Automatic annotation (TrEMBL):
Protein name: Integrase catalytic domain-containing protein
SUPFAM superfamilies membership: Ribonuclease H-like
Span of domain Integrase catalytic: 59-227
InterPro entries: HTH-like_dom, Integrase_cat-core, RNaseH-like_sf, RNaseH_sf, Transpos_IS3, Transposase_IS3/IS150/IS904
């Protein structure tokens, strides 16, 4: 918020003052509860498990080198078993950009593959290989997913079993998204309302949300600057 006020409006405001004003006007978001609504993708037929190539080292100095993915559950309406959406993003660790995603009513391998194929389609020619990290979900162990990575010379990496910190970089994205969508204080009435809100937020996050860690730029701006220097 401090960076947004400074860059967009030329206002230099202390972060403590912003916090106080937001608290007074009840604008603070409710904290995301990691345990609540956590989808367990490891249940089902087990396939090939890849080694952990990241070891919780999420930093990189180049785009499209380290990518993380996961699946998170979003509920709407009466929050019944049939009133759920599953969000499967692929996040670039260089800029934090959501470079592809799918939203579906069932967490099937097909939708994870659709997101992966989007990543492979937009990835530019670069002098280094990409590594995609996930948990040990059955979608990521599937033959189709593993073969697609291999065919495109992409390294596969997986978290250790029951070690959420191994994919903390993707969990943090779900945290930000659910907090900023007021997911725990507001129930979206319909599938359409929830999906539209999710897609609108993703566009905002990539194209308009200024980040202090990106030197006051958006994820897409930061990525484009890096690619221009590489090419």
């Amino acid at each position: 918020m401090t960076d947004t006020l400074k860059i967009k409006y030329g206002l230099q405001v202390n972060h403590k003052r912003i916090y106080r004003l937001m608290k007074e006007h009840k604008l603070l978001a409710r904290k995301y509860n990691l345990r609540a609504g956590k989808y367990d993708s490891s249940k089902g037929p087990q396939g090939k498990k890849a080694k952990n190539r990241f070891h919780q080292k999420f930093k990189t100095d180049r785009p499209y080198q380290k990518v993380v993915t996961d699946i998170s559950e979003f509920r709407y309406g009466n929050k019944s078993m049939s009133e759920r959406l599953y969000f499967s993003p692929f996040k670039d660790l260089y800029s934090g950009e959501i470079i592809s995603y799918t939203i579906s009513q069932r967490p099937q391998t097909k939708y994870v593959l659709d997101g992966l194929k989007q990543v492979l389609a937009i990835r530019p020619e670069l002098p280094y290989r990409m590594t995609i990290h996930s948990d040990q979900g059955i979608q990521y162990q599937s033959k189709a997913y593993c073969q697609t990575l291999k065919q495109h010379h992409v390294f596969q990496s997986m978290s250790r079993r029951a070690t959420c910190h191994d994919n903390a970089a993707c969990e943090s994205l779900f945290h930000i998204m659910k907090v900023e969508l007021d997911y725990y204080t507001y129930t979206y009435p319909t599938k359409k309302a929830l999906q539209e809100a999710m897609e609108k937020w993703i566009k905002y996050y990539n194209q308009a949300r200024i980040r202090h860690t990106l030197k006051g730029r958006t994820p897409i701006e930061y990525r484009n600057t890096a690619l221009a220097n590489i090419n």
